[in-house]
Design brief:
With 229 residues, this protein is mostly helical. 68% of the residues lie in helices and 0% in strands. It has helices at residues 2-31, 35-43, 49-65, 78-89, 93-100, 109-120, 123-129, 132-141, 144-152, 160-166, 169-175, 178-192, 205-208, 217-225. α1 (2-31) packs across α8 and α4 (78-89) packs antiparallel against α5.
Length: 229
């Protein structure tokens, strides 16, 4: 019984680290791909269509067409939102998917599928390397980045006061845990410095890949001003 529990715990930890590492890697090289890499994707649209659409929804829409005036305010006016809706309407079904995902704040249905497929490619290797109990643990936690991107990411752009007033007691408790406070800090740094570091919502991969930027005293003052801490 003790070894069974130990194997499962080991699997949970491995799954967590694998998921976090993959999240950090794909966020850097797909969702916020460097300009030269994105241009490479554009040269082969049939091969990299999924990467191109992910870059557009995340890097272009989420980073530059929303939250422009304030980190916790998606649109400064109804007119600003309407202009973006008109722009996205020209993108057809992809534009509608972005609107339905609250303008790329939530990982949409197709995004979840793409992410799960990317992670699932690693599972056969995990199955070969580890026993069944460890593998079972891996299968539980490796999906955490998709869960965080869909259900938790929206709260990273809300002030604590907003969460307290408009969301339930469980969400309030969750957002105020030490882990989620660190996620909020990490995500703020990701946005403030142009999406070139601090890619994780599931913490750990950025540190392993040495692309984690620490918050400065000025960063903390800004976070306090917008109500994140």
């Amino acid at each position: 019984m003790l070894f069974t529990l130990l194997y499962i715990i080991i699997g949970l930890l491995i799954g967590y680290l694998v998921g976090s590492y993959v999240e950090s890697f794909f966020h850097q090289y797909v969702s916020d791909a460097p300009t030269k890499l994105y241009k490479f994707y554009r040269r082969y649209p049939r091969i990299f269509s999924a990467f191109i659409s992910t870059y557009y929804s995340h890097h272009i829409i989420h980073h530059y067409h929303t939250y422009k005036s304030h980190y916790t305010t998606q649109f400064s006016s109804d007119e600003e939102e309407q202009k973006l809706q008109i722009k996205l309407a020209k993108k057809g079904s992809h534009g509608q998917l972005i609107i339905d995902s609250a303008y790329a704040v939530k990982l949409g249905g197709r995004g979840i599928v793409k992410y799960l497929v990317a992670l699932a490619l690693l599972l056969p290797l995990c199955y070969l390397l580890f026993n069944k109990l460890i593998f079972a643990g891996i299968c539980i936690t490796v999906w955490l980045p998709a869960i965080m991107a869909h259900w938790v990411h929206p709260y990273m752009h809300m002030s604590k006061q907003d969460v307290k007033q408009n969301h339930g007691s469980f969400i309030n408790w969750l957002i105020n845990t030490r882990y989620m406070r660190n996620v909020a800090i990490n995500h703020f740094i990701h946005h403030k410095y142009g999406g070139v570091s601090n890619y994780n919502l599931v913490l750990g991969g950025d540190i392993l890949r040495r692309i984690s930027r620490k918050a400065t005293a000025e960063d903390f003052r800004e976070m306090k001003t917008v109500g994140l801490i």
